[in-house]
Amino acid sequence: MAAEYQIPDWRVVDYQPFCLDEAVMDRSTQRPLWIRGPRPQRLEPGAYFVCLGAAQTFGRFCERPFPTILQDRLGIPVLNISHGGAGPAFFCSNNEHLLKYLNDARFVVVQVMSGRSDSNSLFESEGVGYFRQRSDGRFMGADQAFSELLQTQPRTFVTQVVEETRQSWLSSYRQLLANIRSRKILFWFATRTPSYQQGWKDLDALFGPFPQLVNAAMVADLRRDCDHYVECVTKRGLPQLLVDRFTGLPTTVTDSWTAKPWTKNWYYPSPEMHQDAARALEPVCKPLGNPQPAHVMARHFWSRIWSAARRERLIPRLVECGASTV
């Protein structure tokens, strides 16, 4: 999505997009994934961190998103691996090459992404909130799909599909988090808290503000699989007037996936919100960004193995192998 954003947004921000690795694929296009720059000069295992997420992590319309701010404050390089509209499924299928970059990182900040980006019994998603209807192969956006459901189906049926989507989202996140061996920080970055009053009147009432469909119970479930949890709820700087970086004058941005041209950014986090995000993350990231002695790193590794084994009820087998001495 870095390249897709760069074309319409060029006069507002240069995202410096680059191809991370020809072997790391973009599920939505089946082409190599391009991510936001600048490209780090060096990527040594254990000497960089990753921010993984959607457009809020990418930083659309923002010159210095929170990953870049953190990079400067921590003094180590960052990979901003993000994609507009992404949910956890975008990053957790056929991603062995991506996992190498995640597991070589000192730590990974994992954004709580939208809940509308996963599959259910009616629709199949590639993890970006764009659906293929299973019955006839028709493609449509998640908003259109759920709007049609609300207009044509009884509430009991819509409730079932919503619950399927949420459970699929949780399953995708569990798979992703289980495969990341680096220290994990789950990051809530939104204009609302995880608790919201779901309604049925229309799409906005059903979804709630970003991250759509995600509630407090879902976040609590994910927190158990992460080392840390950070929450940043802010609206500072919204709406953001879009300014041409060459003339300094207000400008308009038009893209192919938004109904109306952008004169102000009312949806994506503003530059001020990214400052708030970096401020919230820094106290947790800073200790993780400092190099640790080998024996401490080893203990963290075995601690994570032991925790995973307890979840999977494999402890007796590990004890037989001598892991109980850790």
Q: Can you put this structure into words, describing what you see?
A:
The protein is an alpha/beta fold and 326 residues long. The protein has 2 domains: 2-291, Rossmann fold (3-Layer(aba) Sandwich); 294-326, no CATH class. The protein is 39% helix and 16% strand. The chain is built from 12 helices and 14 strands. It has helices spanning 2-9, 55-58, 66-74, 88-91, 96-103, 142-152, 155-179, 203-207, 216-223, 271-289, 294-312, 315-320, and strands at 18-19, 25-26, 31-32, 34-35, 49-53, 78-82, 107-111, 123-125, 130-133, 139-141, 183-190, 228-233, 240-241, 264-265. The strands form 5 sheets. A 5-stranded parallel sheet has the order 6-5-7-11-12, with helices on both faces. A hairpin with a 4-residue loop joins strand 2 and strand 3 (31-32). Mean pLDDT is 91; it is low at 315-326.
Q: Main traits of this protein?
A:
single chain, 326 residues, alpha/beta, Rossmann fold, 2 domains, five-stranded parallel sheet, three-stranded antiparallel sheet, 12 helices, 14 strands, 16% strand, globular, disordered C terminus
Extended strand count: 14
For the record, the count of structural domains works out to 2
What series of H and E elements makes up the topology? HEEEEEHHEHHEEEEHHEHHEEEHHH
Tell me the number of helical segments per DSSP (H or I, 4 or more residues long): 12
CATH class value of the largest domain = Alpha Beta
Mean pLDDT metric: 91
Alpha-beta content class? alpha/beta
The outline comes out as: globular
What proportion of the residues is helical, as a percent range?
Answer: 25-40%
Adjacency order of strands in the biggest sheet: 6-5-7-11-12
CATH superfamily of the largest domain: SGNH hydrolase
Distance between the termini: 43 Å
Low-confidence stretches: 315-326
